User: Which sequence fits this backbone?
């Protein structure tokens, strides 16, 4: 037996047409602000056919498209959708492969290889770097990340995303342990330090999503 409301469906299934209808509702706002649509998740590349269809229709309608991704996908998937994406928000966390496996459960080899390839011809890339104290804000990781990013073409900037604890309640609702429960958000001085070290490589660095 399952207690009432212990399990509930979050979200709903929509067709490409239904999603486009929602997108079109804000067309006036896009045209006024110069904005557009951001596809995020989760990981949008886990639904490549659906994503490709949506991106294609957005391009037909001249709607600006942004894709928020961690880059963990087969190269042919990224190659297929690349021409339909105006800006990639590409997530980088940890440069050391062993440490990346420890904290994410996956190697970063494919992620870095895809980013190198993407940077050769993408229209624009913004790197998202979540600053997580004691995990990826150490001198070595910050410097290696900045060094790698500075070697790439078409990267507009790095956005530092201060770690927050907003996901704790979501994990609880899913009945899963939250493994970073002892980690506290970075201090303003900590963020400033990461920013200055990365800027030393000639990279434009922002704080937050802007």
Assistant:
């Amino acid at each position: 037996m399952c207690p009432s409301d212990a399990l509930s469906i979050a979200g709903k299934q929509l067709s490409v047409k239904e999603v486009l209808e929602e997108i079109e509702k804000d067309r006036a706002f896009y045209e006024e602000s110069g904005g557009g649509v951001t596809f995020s998740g989760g990981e949008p590349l886990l639904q490549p056919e659906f994503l490709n269809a949506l991106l294609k229709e957005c391009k037909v309608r001249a709607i600006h498209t942004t894709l928020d991704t961690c880059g963990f996908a087969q190269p042919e998937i990224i190659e297929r959708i690349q021409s339909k994406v105006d800006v990639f928000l590409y997530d980088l966390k940890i440069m050391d492969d062993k440490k990346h496996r420890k904290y994410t459960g996956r190697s970063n080899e494919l992620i870095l290889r895809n980013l190198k390839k993407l940077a050769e011809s993408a229209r624009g890339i913004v790197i998202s770097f979540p600053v997580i104290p004691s995990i990826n804000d150490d001198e070595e990781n910050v410097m290696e990340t900045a060094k790698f990013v500075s070697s790439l073409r078409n990267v507009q900037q790095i956005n530092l995303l201060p770690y927050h604890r907003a996901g704790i309640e979501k994990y609880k609702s899913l009945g899963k342990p939250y493994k970073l429960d002892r980690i506290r958000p970075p201090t303003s001085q900590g963020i400033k330090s990461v920013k200055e070290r990365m800027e030393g490589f000639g990279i434009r660095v922002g704080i937050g999503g802007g």
